[in-house]
Specification:
The chain is an all-alpha fold and 105 residues long. It has four helices and no strands. The protein is extended and about 55 Å long.
């Protein structure tokens, strides 16, 4: 099979099951992070808040499909609103690790 044939067959794969399966290692990471006490608290909350982003994204994707008949990426207000939650979680993670680094020095 040539590379274009491989890419063609790869494009036919539904990524939804992979998305669901990816939650399990992330939940394992969160379990470890909470128990280890090695992750700064604000960063830990940021990592946990990522699950809120996932939930909001799923809801927004369903709304985009039902209301607009489009994928979430094609409905800018819903897509931007969902991405806002990822930005918030990233800022929480950044500030948490920054605070830990500043306090350590």
């Amino acid at each position: 099979m040539n590379s274009s044939g491989f890419l063609q067959s790869l494009s036919a794969v539904d990524p939804a099951p992979l998305f669901v399966l990816s939650l399990f290692p992330y939940l394992a990471f969160l379990w470890w992070a909470w128990r280890s006490k090695r992750v700064p608290p604000l960063a830990l909350w940021g990592f946990s808040f990522t699950l809120v982003f996932v939930f909001i994204t799923i809801v927004a994707a369903v709304v985009a499909e039902l209301v607009y008949g489009r994928q979430l990426a094609d409905v800018d207000p819903l897509h931007g609103g969902a991405e806002l939650f990822l930005t918030i979680s990233n800022v929480m993670i950044l500030l948490g690790f920054r605070s830990a680094a500043v306090n350590k020095s």
